[in-house]
Amino acid sequence: MDAIRNIEKPYTVAERLGPLVRRVLARNPSPFTYTGTQTYLVGDGASLAVIDPGPDEVEHLDALMAAIGDAAVTAICCTHTHRDHSPAASPLAARTGAPVIGCAPLTLDDDGPRADAAFDPTYNPDRVLTDGEAISGEGWTLRAIATPGHTSNHVCFALEETGALFSGDHVMGWSTSVVSPPDGDMTAYMESLQKLYGREQDTVYYPAHGPAVTKPRQLVRGMIGHRRSREKQIQRQIEAGLTRIPAMVAQMYKGVDERLHGAAGRSVLAHLIDLERRGLVQRDGEDWALLA
Fold first, then answer.
1. Which ranges carry the Metallo-beta-lactamase domain (predicted)?
2. Which residues, in sequence order, are CB contacts of 247 under 8 Å at separation 6+?
3. Which of 104, 107, 153, 175 has the most CB atoms in a 10 Å sphere around its CB?
């Protein structure tokens, strides 16, 4: 929290970010939400969409309603169902009469320490968008881009008129995405990064947390490289005789607050599961070994 204490945080106001796009920042800053969840309003005409309505907090809902004004809300869209993203969907739908459209519902009790929010059991969409499906309103079109990995139900939304992509938690400029098994899946995450890297039409990413990404393909390429470097580091740890995750984490995350080591271990586990699927490592109980 110290790192974000002095960053300007314009809560309760709608900020213009670009053509057709405004942002309202929720007052839920934390080590995994940065300055808070960014709810996006898409559209400048008589109808608009709301992306990632955020936490069910009266202040945030009131700010969204003020920003919406007299416009009709065509859809309330969620990128995924962590509790910092989707709980406001239902109360906002009640206030506006808008349908909840976007990712599939998912509630899961994880089996390890988390570095992000738990799942939202209240999320109940009126319609689930499949990969490539679109919704539209006056002057705007949002197309769903399935990007599983951070969660199995994660979806990005491409604003076709401007080249903007709402990247949720899949790609953020301030931090790498958490990938925590059993629902977080490194294999799917890497495939989704490659999918976004192939989309040359996207010129800016608006993530759910942190600043806009103005060189998205460059960032995604770097993220892919970072993850590949991390998996090689894990393989080197095993080769050096560190066969259990806590020992790997202690070596790989020297200088990192030990309170975060449990969550770091989840990321290491996600990489190991991916390496196991690719026939590069095998496990025996809590121990991991390289395969020739």
1. 36-209
2. 237
3. 153
Q: How many Å apart are CA 36 and CA 53, to the nearest integer?
A: 12
| Number of neighbouring beta carbons within 10 Å of residue 236 | 14
Q: Is the separation of the CB atoms in 210 and 175 below 8 Å?
A: yes
Domain boundaries, the chain: 2-214, 226-290
Whole-model pTM: value is 0.92
Q: What are phi and psi of 166, to 5 degrees?
A: -90, 105
Residue 39: what residue type? T
246-282 per-position pLDDT tens digit: 999 999 998 888 877 888 899 999 999 999 999 999 9
* Residues 27, 174: Cα–Cα separation, whole Å: 18
- Residue 71: strand, helix, or coil: coil
Q: Confirm if 206 and 216 have CB atoms less than 8 A apart.
A: no
Cβ atoms of residues 262 and 253 within 8 Å: no
How far apart, in Å, are the Cα atoms of 204 and each of 83, 227, 228? 25, 22, 24
Q: What is the DSSP letter of 82?
A: B
Q: Which residues contact 201 (CB under 8 A, 6 or more apart)?
A: 158, 163
